[in-house]
Specification:
alpha+beta; 193 residues; 2 domains
């Protein structure tokens, strides 16, 4: 014989015909109860729709918003943005007029999911730029150490800061304390472009 759950009076007072109550942990949830016949099944299959949480004060009706996840993009932002914005002028001068292309190539090599992939400017490969990537990264790192006392590995800690775009809106994910210290050292405030 199955054990039947006994509900408190204040829970049962909220339940109406065609509704069911389910207890999970110490919480009581209210559902609209229905069932439907499914070909090949002997009995009807229950189909319960969540309505809300039952509290001693009444029902807290829940609202579920459906989001089309095809409209959501998540890209690495913190590392890419910081390297672009804080790139020392001394390095730019040494690299010459195509310093921006070289910088984007370095960023792409260190961040496969960079937000720069969505940019209209294509990111060139080291071969197209006729540079050795290792030497280029080493040179940039020396300039970051001289200017900010930060290595590329320190900057790489920013690569878990994401740019999230959804339904035409964009926002930046959470920034932890270590990441904020690095951004402060670089004197950068992350902003959505």
């Amino acid at each position: 014989m199955a054990n039947k759950t006994v509900y408190p009076e204040w829970v049962l007072a909220q339940k109406k015909k065609g509704q069911t109550v389910k207890k999970v942990g110490n919480n009581y949830y209210l559902y609209k109860h229905s069932s439907k016949r499914v070909p090949g099944k002997k009995n009807p299959v229950p189909n319960d729709t969540f309505l809300g949480v039952i509290t001693p004060d009444g029902i807290e009706y829940g609202t579920k918003t459906k989001v089309d996840t095809r409209s959501i993009t998540v890209r690495e932002y913190g590392f890419s943005y910081a390297v672009q914005k804080a790139c020392p002028d001394s390095w730019k001068t040494i690299q010459g007029k195509n310093h921006e292309e070289k910088l984007r190539t370095i960023i792409k090599s260190r961040s496969k999911n960079t937000y720069l992939n969505d940019d209209s400017k294509p990111i060139k490969s080291p071969q197209e730029l006729r540079v050795q990537l290792g030497a280029l990264v080493g040179s940039l790192q020396r300039h970051f150490v001289d200017a900010y006392d930060l290595k590329m590995d320190d900057l790489q800690l920013l690569d878990t800061i994401y740019l999230v775009q959804m339904d035409g809106k964009a926002f930046i994910s959470n920034i932890n304390d270590v990441q904020q210290e690095i951004l402060d050292k670089l004197q950068i405030k992350l902003e959505v472009q």
